[in-house]
Each structure stands twice: as structure tokens, then as C-alpha cells.
Amino acid sequence: MKNSERVVVIGAGVAGLTSALQLSKKGYDVTIVAKFVPGDYDIEYTSPWAGANWMSFVKDNERLANYDRITYDVFQKLVKECPDAGIWPRRCITYVRQEDLDKQSDILGGLLDARPWFADVVGNFTTLDPSTLPKGYCQGIAYDSVCINVQVYLPWLQSQCFANGVKLKVVTLKHIKEAMHLHSSGYKADLIVNCTGLQASKLGGVMDPKVYPGRGQTVLVRNHAPAMYSVSGTVDGDDELTYIMSRPGGGTILGGCYQKGNWNGTIDPNLAQRIIRRALEICPDLEKDFPLDIVRHNVGLRPSREGGPRVELEYMEGVGKVVHNYGAGGAGYQSSYGMADHVVELVDLALME
After folding, report:
1. Which of 11, 32, 154, 348 makes the best surface tag, with the fewest CB within 10 Å?
2. Element (H or E) spanning 41, and its range?
């Protein structure tokens, strides 16, 4: 790889940082330009608000399954080799209600299958005996997965970028073409990688009308859950979810909801109470040692996109070569390395021409 091949990555969320890291490993001269960086908290900066874990909901989509497959393998390696990354091995358990079996859902996807696509990818996949399930559930699965403490992982990911020579500029862009002149070398970039998430709907030159927020609300508690849990549906509405993620370093995330098109960053106290009620119903062990102890309530906006994530090469008039990587929605972490590797393939292709 030639040192003269300069790449500017827009965005310092999990997509931007992972793309920059993988590009730097290939020898590209990478500069990240971003409005927000790890340590910042803003409703526009989606990555710090994530749960986050690996729980694939892909169904009948080989491209997205491959993203998740690649990322699962990387996370397993990081668990063993990088204890400072904030990734923790956890058992993941999914319960399915009878009334949800025939649903077609982008949110639930393959989780409704008795044997989802990833059964042969994850460790220790098990179909649960129906007699062992909580009341009201007809099937369940369990497998080895991971939970990620994003407050640890994002700074760690940034540090890996810096160790590989990636530079960072804190900048607010109005148009994508501005990024071409922001490479740390002072020279024009050869290519831009667009990892702007929700801002892809607002950034000049991109303005993708398919991008929308998937509002999520969670409750962080000090209590410990013995595993990660998810369920197929709730009695409280189709846009509400039940999931539990016990985090590396302590505490547990209780969720949640997926409110399509909702940009509201304000906490809904009634929703919070429903989240807590559902979590205790599925995992009463949360209160085994002490009553529920709330640390804080969170709202985050998943950077979703109609038709799924956009990972593609575009030749933009007045800008040049652009590789897009945005729109992963709730799969931003669990797809991150697979999507970033696809970005590297597209950058290689574009810069060989």
C-alpha cells in the first residue's frame, strides 16, 4: 500500500472508528474528522448510548449475516487477547411467545427461528426444553455471546486507531465535500469514508431520505443479571422490547423500545416503569441481592435505514470517491468489523483504479 493514499473517515462512532482502524491496518494514511468523539454525550452521537452486545436478528440476508459472523469472531478474539477493551463473554437467552411466531419483524428477524442462521457460528448453541421456560413462552434458545461496555470500548477503539497512526480532527461539516480538504497531511484526500450515521440524512451532498432514528430508552441499574436476555414481544405494544444486558465492570442495562422515526431525547417515565416491570418478570434474580438500584435513565437514537445499511462505493460529482458505511440501526456494534472489512475492500477497489 502506498503511503500517499490518503483517506478521510467522517464520524467517530463505532462505525467510523472501526473503519479507520481496519484501513490503518492495511497501510492507508487515515484522518478521522468528527463533530463528536469518545467521551462526548449528545443525542446526535449515537454510539455512547448503546447497550451493547452481539445478538444477531438477521433473517434471509447473507450480506448482513456475514457482517455479524465476522464481528462475532473478532469479539471472541478480543475477549481472550484484550481484557482492557471492555468486552465480556456472556450467555445469551432468547424466549419466544406463541403469538409472535408468525410475525414478520425487522427488529426480531431470525430470533423467532427455533434454529437461527448463527446456530453453527456461536459457541454452545442450545434449544431450550419448553418445560424449563418461563410462563407464557413456547420456545427458547441460548448461546455464548458477549456484552460490551461502550464507555470502555469506544475510547479503547480510538486508542487502537491512534496506535496505528490514525489522526483525528474535531470538525462540524455542512457538506461532505469539505472533508476532502481536511486530511492531516494538508493535502487533498484520495477518498472519503462516510460513517455519519443519522447525520447522513442531514449532511450536504448525502441527504439520504431513507435514514431514520430508531429511538431506544433504557434503564441502567447496579444489580447483576446472571445472563443476557431478550424476548420476542411484549403486552405493551409492538414498538416496545424487553432485553437485559449485564455489563462488563458491573451494572445491567434494561430495555427498551424501538420507536421508528422518533427523535425525542426526553425520558418517558411511564415507559421506564414498563421496562423495569418486564425485566423483573423475566429475570427476578435481578433483585436477588438487593432491591433494584437505578443509576440512570438513557435515551439513544439507533441510526437506522430503510432497506438496511448502506455500504457501497460512490463517485460523487464535485467530491470524488466516497465509500459509505452507515444505517446499521441496532446492529452497529455486532456488525462493526464485518462492515469495516467491506469498507476496506471497497477502498482497495476504488484506489486501484
Report:
1. 348
2. none
